[in-house]
Specification:
Blueprint: H1 2-12, E1 23-26, E2 29-33, E3 37-44, E4 52-59, E5 64-65, E6 77-79, E7 87-92, E8 97-104, E9 116-121, H2 124-143, H3 146-155, H4 163-185, H5 187-196, H6 206-228, H7 238-259, H8 265-282, H9 284-297
Parallel strand pairs: 2-9
Antiparallel strand pairs: 1-3, 3-7, 4-5, 4-6, 4-8, 8-9
Length: 298
């Protein structure tokens, strides 16, 4: 609990605002089936002194290409001068792929990050099936936490659980939650990420945030059960305690560095993801070892 409080104090002390747009694409992401079309509205973010002539560029998140085969090339358009004077473009999908459409103009400076993303797919039906399977996986993984908690409650005994695993698992999900919440809700993190990757896509979605917060809550409940229920004299091993302490120390020290602007907030948040990755690789080893010991003693 104290560890979580320290992180929250450091973390929320770093929050500020994000960046402005010049050009709006509505929607900003279009998914089209091959050979079909979709319209997109374009408007200025602010009123201008004169109408604005816009030509379009094609590329990916990192660079611009001379041309593209994914969609039919777009004609130049004229919009404005008022922000409510929008124009529409029609996207004709020709080949399956991912495309980033940008804009350039001699009348105004349009940021490299003001873009329209286009995904051309083989089948809308197949895309829906993929999304359904993804949500089934998400729900199944979330529900999988509950049988152990219910069993612990019924037996009032956690002797079969490795305390090393429980502690590392909690820290891992805590780090995952901090990473997801930061990217999904915190403007400072989002603006630093987009500054580093102007055409980057936020890697975190709402279901990621929900899953991580749910997971850290459930693992915290399991941890409380380990404190109050019978555990046959189990304690955390010296190795796991040392590893846990080192990881917490890294997070606290890097948080202090971030608050002093020695490292960026984004770099600090990435450290949480590295800790999560390390824990994911090794966290099951203590439980496997514990299962082996219990089997030999049975």
């Amino acid at each position: 609990m104290k560890i979580s409080l320290i992180f929250c104090v450091i973390f929320f002390a770093l929050l500020v605002n994000g960046s402005d747009k010049v050009l709006f694409f509505e929607p900003e992401l279009v998914t089209i089936q091959k050979y079909e079309s979709n319209s997109v509205k374009i408007s200025l973010a602010n009123d201008n002194n004169q109408s604005v002539a816009i030509n379009f560029t094609y590329g990916d998140e990192n660079e611009v290409y001379p041309t593209t085969d994914i969609i039919k090339l777009l004609d130049h358009i004229q919009i404005g001068p008022l922000r409510n004077q929008s124009a529409k473009i029609l996207i004709h999908a020709q080949e399956v792929g991912h495309l980033v459409i940008g804009a350039i103009s001699n009348d105004i400076d349009i940021p490299f990050s003001d873009i329209l993303r286009v995904d051309v797919i083989h089948s809308s039906f197949l895309n829906i099936i993929i999304q359904i399977v993804g949500w089934i996986y998400f729900i199944a993984w979330s529900v999988s936490f509950y049988p152990q908690i219910i069993l612990n409650y019924r037996l009032k005994d956690v002797s079969g659980l490795s305390l090393d695993y429980i502690a590392l698992n909690f820290l891992g999900h805590f780090c995952y939650s901090v990473f997801n919440v930061s990217f999904y809700w915190i403007n400072k993190v989002q603006s630093e990420y987009l500054s580093k990757h102007p055409r980057g896509v936020n890697p975190v979605f709402l279901n990621d945030v929900f899953f991580s917060l749910h997971a850290v809550t459930i693992t915290a409940i399991t941890g409380v059960q380990c404190l109050i229920y019978r555990k046959a004299g189990q304690k955390m091993s010296i190795a796991a305690s040392g590893l846990f302490g080192i990881m917490v120390s890294v997070l606290v020290i890097s948080g202090i560095f971030s608050s002093l602007s020695i490292i960026t907030v984004l770099d600090y948040i990435y450290i949480f993801s590295y800790i999560k990755l390390i824990i994911t690789i090794m966290k099951y080893i203590p439980q496997v070892s514990n299962n082996s010991i219990l089997y030999k003693n049975s």
